[in-house]
Amino acid sequence: MKIIVPPFLKNRYILALIIFGIWMLFFDRNSMINQYRLVSTLGDLNTEKEYYQTEILSDSAALVKLQNSNEELERYAREKYLMKRDNEDIYLIIPEE
Length: 97
What we know:
Layout: H1 7-10, H2 12-27, H3 32-68, H4 70-81
Helix pairs in contact: 3-4
């Protein structure tokens, strides 16, 4: 029984190109699989970067408010750090989970 080889596989340049392509797709350090992973990681990092930039802008605006307004500073201290005046009582309501 004789094995029939397609004619394009008899050409050594085509065969070398196929082997090179398989090597680049799967086995090389910079393979297409690794490139896909890197691109998806880059997309995730860009999304995080946009999120943190918007957070920086909102925090900067809050900081300017706190530095310029005593009422805003008092409100923040009361809410965040549970500070109170001498004649006030604070009741904390903690929801059960």
